[in-house]
Amino acid sequence: MRADFLPFRVLLLAVSGWVHREQQGVIDYLVEENRVLREQIGNRRLRLTDEQRRRLAAKGIRLGRQILERVASIVTPDTILRWHRNLIAAKWTFSRKQPGRPGIMKRIRALILRMARENPRWGYCRIQGELKNLEHRVAESTVRNVLKEHGILPAPQRPTSWRGFLNAHWGQMVATDFFTVEAWTGRGLSTLYVLFFLDLKTRRIHIAGMTRHPDDRFMVEALQASHRFLQGKRFLICDRDTKFSQRFRTALPAGLHVVRTPLQAPNANAYAERFVRSIKEECLSRMIWFGERQVRKALFEYQEHYHTERSHQGIGNELIEQPSTRQSGAQVICRERLGGLLRHYQRAAAYAHCSGKPLASFPSAPERGRYPS
């Protein structure tokens, strides 16, 4: 080497050594930082994503096992090398068609699963026959394989779901409960107790009565006024309030059995609790009430609105009482109740669902005698 290049070589070696020492210092700091963080985490296992594994594998394969054993702190060198092998295997993996019969259509598979879940007593042949009625021809073994893949047992061993059990008895159950209204009367601020019944299948409600003193006499009178609504029902769901006394249970129509919910378990009577929330949020909590007569009128108006104008998610966003005719006019009008507190939008030519009269001709609120007090 020429003598005039010797100073440049010495300078280059000096700079390279300085850079190497600086990089080594950075690496030592990062390794120690990882160890400190690892001590903070303790024995908890790190959950890495596939992207994080890929990045570590791509960097770690360049270092080799010996360097990885010295610097790797969150995983072992064998783990990084295994991730790298999986990365290479995924690169050379190609999808290809498997030989044999074509797979069953997704729509037919979904139908098989739906029929099995909605009908716990249906066996393979019964499901096969139902599919044949829908013009889907599948073998019994196909039905068995689909159910087995999804962990559904054969018909004799398949348990009945609570949803299926309740749906089978839906039309025979009715719920009842109280809610309160604070109103200003001649005696000052009074608490009014309102008793209602709720048909779980149709979501129809019946305001049985309102009073300041819900004693046994009021309960029996309200029950007698609700006899038609309770006719044909077998189970009455109520909480353990003392208002539902022995005298009340004795006055129930023949064949109607009381099912009392557990203590402090409002979810056991969820449909009744949901109605209480609806009537309070949409009506009762949005006004100051003066006198029982005003409250009775509001209860009647909300009951009509609840049945004929308000859609319900539990029945597919439909009305409880559907109109007998549907008009297709372009004009849309707004029907208001309680001074605009309750609103309903309809076609201008729509008619009442029962009497054939315009909606404006609904009867006024009931008089005091309509509800026991």
What does this structure look like?
- The protein has 13 helices and eight strands.
- Strands 1, 2, 3, 4, 5 and 6 form a six-stranded mixed beta sheet that branches.
- Mean pLDDT is 80; it is low at 351-373.
- It has three domains: 8-39 and 49-83, no CATH class; 106-159; 170-324 and 354-370, Ribonuclease H-like superfamily/Ribonuclease H (Nucleotidyltransferase, domain 5, 2-Layer Sandwich).
- By secondary structure, it is an alpha/beta fold.
- A hairpin with a 5-residue loop joins strand 2 (188-199) and strand 3 (205-211).
- Helix content is 43%, strand content 14%.
Report the total helices. Answer: 13
In the CATH hierarchy, the architecture of the largest domain is: 2-Layer Sandwich
Shape: elongated
Structural class: alpha/beta
Please write the string of helix (H) and strand (E) elements.
Answer: HHHHHHHHEEEHHEHEHEHEE
Produce a short descriptive summary.
This protein is an alpha/beta fold and 373 residues long. It contains 13 helices and eight strands. It folds into three domains: 8-39 and 49-83, no CATH class; 106-159; 170-324 and 354-370, Ribonuclease H-like superfamily/Ribonuclease H (Nucleotidyltransferase, domain 5).
Question: Which terms summarize this structure?
Answer:
373 residues, Nucleotidyltransferase, domain 5, disordered C terminus, elongated, alpha/beta, six-stranded mixed beta sheet
